């Protein structure tokens, strides 16, 4: 098993400015030992560390953690995607197992992926074989689809299914936008972050139809499971989310969604995921 989406942070260090005191449940340090305890308790072999700060220092710290254990199969870091992106990425690759870059777009304008200043950066990621992790909301999906079609050699993974409101009904506009993205063969989607998007009063079971919808759209070869721990703990716990996801995915697709797709899309070597 590979958990394709976990976070670690140290408050006040490595440029860490989030989470703030307004999120007391997760307003503390989370280190490598905390993560390994979660992986052990849930019989998960390896994980992908994903940045939580828009900072080179944070990314270098995550890469240094990956050097301590093979159970960190790779790091999705942050880098400024303007200017000499190739040089920045090369410096990060020397530091550790960089497998992707995540610009934090969820708070930006809906057309943010159309910014011409970012085009060379996206092209550089494609040349280096790095994944673009897309932290977005539904209003960004049309722009993301345009990027995918302009840059068909860039592998894009949508984080947290673009954070739809998870309630009694599947939003029609979200489904239409995700269907358009699913038509692009270079786009995959993380089965993560759904429980923290639950509508008021909705139970965890409300996520199951969304999982089924994503499976229908992307198929078992372009979905990959992630816990989003420890952010997940704002709404649930690791074991409960893993059990819900397993129960909502056909057994025949478990190997792909819970392990193989992450290894393939992030180009993880067998030893790194052991």
TrEMBL record:
Enzyme class: hydrolase
Organism field: Sphingobium scionense
Domain Amidohydrolase-related stretches: 2-268
EC number(s) reported in the record: 3.1.1.-
Protein name: L-fuconolactonase
Family: Belongs to the metallo-dependent hydrolases superfamily.
Keywords tagged on the record: Hydrolase
GO molecular function: hydrolase activity
Family matches, as SUPFAM superfamilies: Metallo-dependent hydrolases (SSF51556)
Transmembrane portions of the chain: none
């Amino acid at each position: 098993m590979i958990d394709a989406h976990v976070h670690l942070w140290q408050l006040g260090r490595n440029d860490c400015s989030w989470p703030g005191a307004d999120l007391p449940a997760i307003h503390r340090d989370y280190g490598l030992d905390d993560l390994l305890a979660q992986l052990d308790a849930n019989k998960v072999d390896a994980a992908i560390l994903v940045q939580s700060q828009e900072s080179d220092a944070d990314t270098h710290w995550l890469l240094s953690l990956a050097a301590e254990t093979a159970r960190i199969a790779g790091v999705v870091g942050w880098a400024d995607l303007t200017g000499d992106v190739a040089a920045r990425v090369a410096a990060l690759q020397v530091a550790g197992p960089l497998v992707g870059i995540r610009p934090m777009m969820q708070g930006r304008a809906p057309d943010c992926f159309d910014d011409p200043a970012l085009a060379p950066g996206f092209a550089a990621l494609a040349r280096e074989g790095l994944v673009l992790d897309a932290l977005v909301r539904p209003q960004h999906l049309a722009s993301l689809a345009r990027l995918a079609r302009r840059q068909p050699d860039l592998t894009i993974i949508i984080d947290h299914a673009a954070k739809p409101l998870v309630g009694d009904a599947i939003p029609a506009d979200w489904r239409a936008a995700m269907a358009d993205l699913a038509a692009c063969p270079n786009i995959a989607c993380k089965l993560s972050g759904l429980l923290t998007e639950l509508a008021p009063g909705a139970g965890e079971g409300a996520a199951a139809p969304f999982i089924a919808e994503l499976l229908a759209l992307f198929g078992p070869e372009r979905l990959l499971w992630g816990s989003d721990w420890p952010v997940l703990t704002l709404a649930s716990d690791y074991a409960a989310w893993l059990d819900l996801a397993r129960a909502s995915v056909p057994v025949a697709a478990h190997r792909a969604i819970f392990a193989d797709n992450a290894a393939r899309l992030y180009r993880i070597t067998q030893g790194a995921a052991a």
